[in-house]
Design brief:
The protein has eleven helices and seven strands. The protein has about 325 residues and is α/β, with parallel strands linked by helices. It has one domain: Vaccinia Virus protein VP39 (Rossmann fold, 3-Layer(aba) Sandwich), CATH 3.40.50. It has a seven-stranded mixed β-sheet, with helices on both faces. The longest helix is centred in the middle third of the chain and has 25 residues. The chain is globular, with a radius of gyration of 21 Å. The protein starts with 5 loop residues before the first helix and ends with a strand.
Length: about 325
Amino acid sequence: MGISNLKSRIDEEISRKLDIKSFSSTTTTLHIADLGCSVGPETYSAMQDIVESIELKYISEGLNSQIPEFLVFFNDFSSNDFNTLFSALSPNKKYFAAAVPGSFYQRLFAERSLHFVYSSHSLQWLSKVPADLVDQNSLAWNKGMVFYTNAPKAVVEAYSAQFAEDMDSFLCARAEELVRGGMMTLLMPGLSDETPLSECSHCMLYDLLGSCLLEMTQMGLVSEEKVDSFNYPMYIASPKELQGLVEKNKSFIIESMEMVSPLTMEDEMPSAQVFTMQLRDGMQKPIKEHFGAEIDLDDLFDRFSKKIADSSHLIEENYKKPNHLFMVLLKLGD
């Protein structure tokens, strides 16, 4: 879901902190990466906005004659539909484009080759489900649940540890790929430091989907064993957690970090159908991979849509609170 005021925040950070003078002396092509781009229209508009904002920065610095060419790398898993993505690119775009398939939890680009990194709604996805969650001999065995909202402390800690490991891998890879002074802008679902899991709007949605899976188990539509061995491969981090991970990594300075809302005062709440479509886009692949032909995805998400409609008052109350984490990082010198 888009953040309507994100463009102005990125524009502001580029204007204030992107060190284009150091770039101008070393390159005639500025490299931008969208990590976890998927195929939706938001990636096109985000890249166009970033390119235009950097151009304005050059103009404001009196470097009109040094405005570089722009090369945008669109990254996602190799299973991403890059054909659809590239066929929808505007012929009037202000940049050259290339696809870079692969996991962003590992190196993807040459050393010191990137100047700007953007990632939206991707870093909440874990590289893998923590193994202890499906180990019957572990304290973190998550039997009868598919997420960590109401799970024992050991389950939450297993999720948190996996997220910390993944974020360190992400930061280490980008630290090698970004030039000194390079900028990263990251947006992901977040949980305010003072907000309990029970009031996390994202957790509410995933819990509702989990209740649909359990309901289908009780009706004999999917096996209990399959549900017991399934867990959502995602984690909703807090600003405090992310700050600690960045500071521990020591490769970046936090220029900005804040919780933001997906809705302005003028925006209406998304409908149950919109929530269902968005969650299905993200979750149907891991669900299908785990359950295979045993599960009817249409049935699952029809049930979810009905539960969303029945719980709309509770979701609306919490969804309008700041529930996305926006972070701007600058690469430190080697």
